[in-house]
Amino acid sequence: MEKKITQNMHTDKPHEENAEEYDLAIIGCGVSGANIARRLSVYTLAIAILEKAADVSFGTSKGNSGIVHGGFHHNKQYLKTRLEVQGNLMFDQLQRELHFPFKRCGIIVAALHEDEMPVVERLYMQGVENQAIGIELCSRDRILELEPQLAPDVLGGLYAPGGGIIEPYRFVFALVESAQKNGVRLYTNFKVTEARYEPSGNTGCWTIQAADGRKVQARYVVNAAGLFADEVSRLFGGEAFSITPRKGEYFLLDKQTAARPERVVFPVPTGVSKGMLVIPTVEGTVLVGPTAEAVDDKEDYATTTEGLEHILASGKTMIPALRQTDVITNFAGLRPCLGEDFYIEASKKAPALVQVAGIQSPGLTASPAIGEYVKDILKGMGLTLTEKSAWDPFVADPPRVRELSPFELDRLIAADPAWGNLICRCERVSEAEIILALRQGHHTLDGIKYVTRAQMGRCQGGFCTYRIIKLIMRETGLAWNEITKHGGASQVLKAVLP
Ligand SMILES: Cc1cc2nc3c(=O)[nH]c(=O)nc-3n(C[C@H](O)[C@H](O)[C@H](O)COP(=O)(O)OP(=O)(O)OC[C@H]3O[C@@H](n4cnc5c(N)ncnc54)[C@H](O)[C@@H]3O)c2cc1C
Predict the structure, then answer these.
(1) Residue in 69, 73, 74, 443 annotated catalytic
(2) Are residues 383 and 356 in the same domain?
(3) For residues 15 and 175, is the Cβ–Cβ distance under 8 A?
(4) Would you say 377 and 36 are in contact if contact means Cβ atoms under 8 Å apart?
(5) Is 0.90 surpassed by the pTM of this model?
(6) What is the CATH number of the domain that holds 200?
(7) What is the predicted pLDDT for the residue at 200?
(8) Structural domains counted in the chain
């Protein structure tokens, strides 16, 4: 049966023998690659993003705390701190242009023991030094006024009103949509496995090959491959370094929980991590975590009983109202660790290659500034940047049933009954929204989940998964056994032989 995919944002078909030519290829489409692509789309450049997964934001950028950090956790001697502070300030304008869920709800650090107060004071001084927005040292009364859900034995703490929360995957989707609108081409299912450089005159050219044989050529390359940036560097003859994964496990609590704080609540950090947080997500749920455990396997997203018990016990010390009965799911993310700081530099070994590696926390916060920083590196390497006259910063902001008044919804249903057919009841997502996501090229269950929130509610897809599968089949022509959770071999339906 011929596939009837109508409008596809992704290029995932094998194409003509000759490799397409680009000025710049960006390997990896997490939040780093997406910001770099969008920032560079301002210029008259041919740009390709090469992503090995079936959709964008399927790496570390999907499984994190979703916090826009407040600029006080680290010293500004680190590049990551300078980019965090700069990135934080860029989110308001980005939200106006790209409409992703983002709220400056503020961040609290709560001290529960006397010996934690000196650490809080040090964080405060660091925040002042870093020019973090409106940072405040708080007495017990003040911190309880800011967050009445806190344990009554809290001693004081710190308040960073410039910190916030964001839906990380919606941020990446919007950045990519904007980049594509401005001419960037996205290749999905494009796992870079080979690279060859041919010098010619002043500028040479990379030929980059994917596992399925597709090829593109590019004069400059950015390695933003997250956990696999070490392997990509090797393919290009770049620096030898090693990325080690550090797992963070989470609990997600239902919107109905009584334990939802108004602001992000941090404990006083330990040397290894920022500690176990209680996060009021921008969509109304509550996230508790993450753990911090070094693991060997870059694909190990398993959660553990010990990890989850530890999360709840730690969370309750700060917000006593947390209840296990409010938990609707758990998941894990992997930090791509490489020393203490980000590694963002022009390669000294491989020609025309920029390394964007070791982007662990606060990579999401820093990502808009990473785009700016990489743009300057590429300019310094000789890439000519001429602004386009018609660059458009805005993307469309399609309606979402859960945000509409009954009158607005009635008007949409009158024009198209698909707006009235609720596919996901928990998150109130209509057939029309799923169809829109499919037409934008999101053909996996996870892709549709991250774009629309269908399958993310209390029943975790118990009601809607089957209905979404039928819509994918109807809209794309894919057969039932071709529907995957997140691409590759993650088929969700298999034939059971008698
Ligand atoms: C538990 C946890 C909590 C965090 N919390 C926060 C937070 O609250 N705030 C914050 O600011 N930061 C946070 N971070 C950090 C943040 O999530 C990361 O810094 C950020 O997502 C990294 O994005 P990236 O684009 O560099 O990497 P990724 O998102 O991993 O993207 C890399 C992409 O490269 C692709 N790729 C890999 N190899 C290849 C190849 N050979 N060919 C083609 N493509 C390839 C992958 O498929 C992937 O999509 C957290 C991280 C974790 C794990």
Answers:
(1) 69
(2) yes
(3) no
(4) no
(5) yes
(6) 3.50.50.60
(7) 79
(8) 3
Classify 252 as helix, strand or coil: strand
Q: Which of 60, 167, 337, 344 to mutate to test the pocket of ligand 1 (most atoms within 8 A of CB)?
A: 60
The CATH number of whichever domain residue 260 belongs to comes to 3.30.9.10
Q: List all residues whose CB is within 6 A of at least one atom of ligand 1.
A: 27-33, 50-53, 58-61, 64-67, 69, 190-192, 224-228, 232, 248, 290, 333-335, 359-365
| 69 in catalytic set | yes
Q: Is residue 237 domain-shared with residue 343, that is, in the same domain?
A: yes
Give the rounded distance of the alpha carbon of 107 from its chain centre.
20
- Residue-number span of the structural domain to which 22 is assigned: 1-103+164-242+338-397
Peptide bond just before 362 cis, omega within 30 deg: yes
Query: Which tens digit of pLDDT belongs to each residue from 112-160?
Result: 999 999 999 999 999 999 999 999 999 999 999 999 999 999 999 999 9
Domain boundary among 397, 412, 430: 397
pLDDT at 17: 52
**127 and 168 within one domain:** no
Distance 295 CA to ligand 1 centre (A): 16
**Among the residues of 360-429, which ranges form H helices?**
363-380, 406-415
Is residue 36 in a domain? yes
